[in-house]
Write a structure and sequence with these properties.
There is one protein chain. This protein has 21 helices and 22 strands. With 598 residues, the protein is of the alpha+beta class. Helix content is 31%, strand content 24%. The structure holds one RNA strand of 77 nucleotides.
Length: 598
Amino acid sequence: MRTRSHTAGQLREENTGETVQLCGWVHARREQSSDLVFIDLRDRYGITQLVFDSEDSGSALPPKAKELHLEDVIAIRGQVRARDKANTRFETGAVEVVVTELQVLSRTANPPLIPSDEKNLPSEEIRLKHRYLDLRRPKMQHILRTRHRVSKCARDYFDDHGFLEIETPNLTRSTPEGARDFLVPSRNQAGMWYALPQSPQLFKQILMVGGADRYLQICRCFRDEDPRADRQVEFTQIDCEMSFVDRKEVLAIMEGFARTLWNEILGVDLPEFDQITYQDAMDRFGIDRPDTRFALELVDVSDLCATTDFKVFTEALGKPRGVVKAICVPGGAAKLTRKITDGYSKFVQNFGAGGVPVTKVANGTLEAGIAKFVEPIAAQLIERLGAQDGDTILFGADTYSVATKALGELRQKVARDMDLIDESKWNFLWVVDFPMFEWDEETSRFYAMHHPFTAPADHELERFMGMDPSDTEGIESIVSDGYDMVCNGSEIGGGSIRIHQQDVQKKVFQLLGISEEEAKLKFSFLLDALGFGAPPHGGIAFGLDRLVMHLTGTDNIRDVIAFPKSLSGADLMCEAPNVVDDEQLTELHVKSTAKPSR
RNA sequence: GGGGCGGUAGCUCAAUUGGUUAGAGUUCCGGACUGUCUAUCCGGUGGUUGCGGGUUCGAGUCCCGUCCGCCUCGCCA
């Protein structure tokens, strides 16, 4: 007995009287007496109650049932019977199966994780180590199923729109820029290395040159950087690219995908996505992926504060690109205690700011905190912020980038503290008009904000091609044709219209300080391809893991990956990474320089 | 690489100011009970307090080091 006639989620009242055969795990055991035992049988499809009853079956089955442990694997034969009182927790709750035959297919040791115990979820360390037990939990089964449905929805939607699914290599070459690569030594070519792809970016562009026209791939990407709650070293993209399109057309297709997905999985009809420019997002929200489920917008009050004698403000405004910005927190006076706002000062220090000057609105003017310093501009501040009695005003004063970033992060923290986030909302938006380049202080050079293959916006092309590499202000101001899809403050997709002209691509390399020789050495395949008739093209990559996180309501990326890695990049179940034999290393022409400590 | 939190029974947690034999729930083991719903009731087993040092009459508790997990800054074109 190792096959089944039905799954554990299948039986209904109309099956009453049928003789059935079921297989699965012992989810719960309720021993009513030595002659009456209930077992909840679980498989991927659901849970069915089994009854072992000596009166009904006339057999000695109940004593055998008593020997069953949670998570034993069993097969049973029995008769479906309607129940007097249905159990509404299970889809099969209207019936039960009176067992006449029982076979234990597999015993279990005392498990460190009990899938039916929803109250005492073991530590994540144990969940990861015994992943096969964790995956049995109904919640994890739901996530796995949702992830499958998202992949299927992507394939169906893009197939409907003419996209071809095409695979690209996982063993590829390392290219400069971007994240740290995972490397694979070559056996055949001593001293040479493959790199695992950070994304199939160049391959998908070359597929466009190859005439694929519309491409889709659900592909694994690898970036050897420290993980976060929403980031893994190994993650999955829904990667798309289209030929002969402009930004408008790409956004329409991709927005259509997100809308289809949310409808398919959640039954939610999303409204048309808002668009916001990068500059606007930074000015108003202090972040390039604003969460618009709440207001608390950043307001520039530099001009007002310049007239005060408050040293924190005047010193900030004396810096290059110095600003003073403020957030008005409605009703903050009652909830944001001195202790909390002191904590905010500490919080923003994580982002390089000195602290958070605070004041409150009362009786139509400002009181407490830095009120005495801003007294002369109190009326104007209140008016510009639209503040009312009982509000708290939080300031950020520093260079534009520091003040903006600190207040942007603070804005989100305050929203959580004040419970201002409506969790039922789905606020999607496109962030557009990113800068092409970003200055890096440490290395004193420009980097591509998105990646070096992003095209300048159409109206910028002439200015871009004439740009002098020494004109840092000019370079910084060039707007690209890149875009991000943002959902509730989380970036779920990003892409751009790509460069399809060789001379434009060469100009990007020039402005990035990549010499012609280096460009030829590292990117000749791309430059060559662009020289043989490349169609205008653009695309996007969605973070599949993050989409599933949103659709299943988890804030932990490990929950949506069957076999995820810990923060140190370890697979706690199979214990990767691990040592290898010396012979393997020799064959690969590799010698470790690690100290033999462990 | 930096900052923070955590590691005590198979699992989830507790243990006062450093002080008696490290407790409870659950799993597991044994028993009672014929309609349970993660059943209930009675009894029992179960501990290298992550690991290594140190301080002390005495350390789960304090100190130093180290490993692991989580959150986070840097990083993530």
